[in-house]
Amino acid sequence: LGGSISRALQRMNNAPTIDEKVLGELINEIARALLQADVDFKVVADMRSNIKKIVNLDDLAAGHNKRKIIQQAVFNELCKMLDAGKPSYTPKKGKPSSGKTTTCTKYAHYYQKKGWKPALVCADTFRAGAFDQLKQNATKAKIPFYGSYMESDPVKIALEGVERFKEENCDLIIVDTSGRHKQEAALFEEMRQVYEATKPDLVIFVMDSSIGQAAFNQAQAFKQSVSVGAVIVTKMDGHAKGGGALSAVAATKSPIIFIGTGEHMDEFEVFDVKPFVSRLLGMGDWSGFMDKIQDVVPMDQQPELLQKLSEGQFTLRIMYEQFQNLLKMGPIGQVFSMIPGFSSELMPKGHEKESQAKIKRYMTMMDSMTNEELDSTNPKIMTESRMMRIARGAGRPMIEVMDMLDEYKRLAKVWGKMKGLKIPKRGDMSAL
Ligand code: GDP
Ligand code: MG
């Protein structure tokens, strides 16, 4: 999605003059990209008319930078689609909240770290194993939990759990509800009853980012049975299209408050509109990236890595080292897999095996390089005779050496974007 919107903006930037036709084409391309990314039709139609309203070419005097104004309008419009206009929610003490199993624990864990006293209630009596799952998660996070293997009435359990934890002075009671049922109508009815019984302060609609086109209708259906107040989008670590999130916000008129970025308890981030849209547009989310580096890279390896990044110089040796990390999928590999454009193309989901084989071939070729070649920052050093020597040494065809060097150039570009990156100190980190 980000890619095609960026390309559309790029085309507009390259147009000799900006007129109604160019603007119209841009809007059409963006609309198409959004629709392809499963954003709901109505949401796209609104975006379309809003941009047209904001960018009135006739009113723009000759001196104005039309390109910039249009770009800003597109950016703002995408931000607006994700920003339901309410401040993000901070739970009030005293009453329970609700959500879905993994997210429930992440949410509880997040607030527990901030000094809250959360508790989890499993009101999913439909799925066998639901209580066990919650129990395991909760135990791991050291969060009190309530549920039953015998009781089949979710309303009864929800109420019992909430009552118990109120008595125990828990200040954030999270009720996990069922997500599946024999019939959808029964599911919504059950949710309504649990809602009526427990009267939560906040109902969170937990949405899998890969839900696609169904997002709008599903979110709307939830909103119609219970008063949804916030959205959490999960599995943002995957390669899902971003459109569903925009639709969910539009359908529920509620803000996204957190995103889930992995299966682990800590893979949970406060949602921030601007970096999300930047990511959608392919601009990369460097601020979030910095936080991540500090979280997952061992302390002793941070200075060197950050130093290299901030210098913006990418050598074949750094590429070699990053390939090693990527293959290990160790902590640094995780970091690099998050740099937009770094590994998504190098190692697309579902093609890990082939990609790994390719990376290993590249590394074999790099093993035939001299130190001078590995440490050079000048791409011109790679003359044809050097390439031939490397190909011979590695026993691979010349074309593969050229492919490898193309990949190097692409990665060097991505890497170069981080040049001048401010290196924050540990203490500077936002509290999370
Ligand atoms: P529920 O049925 O809606 O309660 O969903 P669960 O919490 O049981 O999660 C279903 C699966 O999705 C589990 O395997 C989770 O580990 C996984 N999962 C949940 N959140 C995320 C996330 O943000 N990223 C990834 N990659 N997996 C997730
Ligand atoms: Mg569940």
Automatic annotation (TrEMBL):
Catalytic activity: GTP + H2O = GDP + phosphate + H(+)
GO molecular function, one term: endoplasmic reticulum signal peptide binding
GO cellular component term, pick one: signal recognition particle, endoplasmic reticulum targeting
Chief location category: cytoplasm
A GO BP annotation: SRP-dependent cotranslational protein targeting to membrane, translocation
Subcellular location field: Cytoplasm; Endoplasmic reticulum
Matching InterPro entries: P-loop_NTPase (IPR027417), Signal_recog_part_SRP54_M_sf (IPR036891), Signal_recog_particl_SRP54_hlx (IPR013822), Signal_recog_particle_SRP54_M (IPR004125), SRP/SRP_N (IPR036225), SRP54 (IPR022941), SRP54_euk (IPR006325), SRP54_GTPase_dom (IPR000897)
Record comment regarding domains: The NG domain, also named G domain, is a special guanosine triphosphatase (GTPase) domain, which binds GTP and forms a guanosine 5'-triphosphate (GTP)-dependent complex with a homologous NG domain in the SRP receptor subunit SRPRA. The two NG domains undergo cooperative rearrangements upon their assembly, which culminate in the reciprocal activation of the GTPase activity of one another. SRP receptor compaction upon binding with cargo-loaded SRP and GTPase rearrangement drive SRP-mediated cotranslational protein translocation into the ER.
Summary of subunit composition and partner proteins: Component of a signal recognition particle (SRP) complex that consists of a 7SL RNA molecule of 300 nucleotides and six protein subunits: SRP72, SRP68, SRP54, SRP19, SRP14 and SRP9.
NCBIfam families tied to this protein: SRP54_euk
The protein, known as: Signal recognition particle 54 kDa protein
Source organism: Acorus gramineus
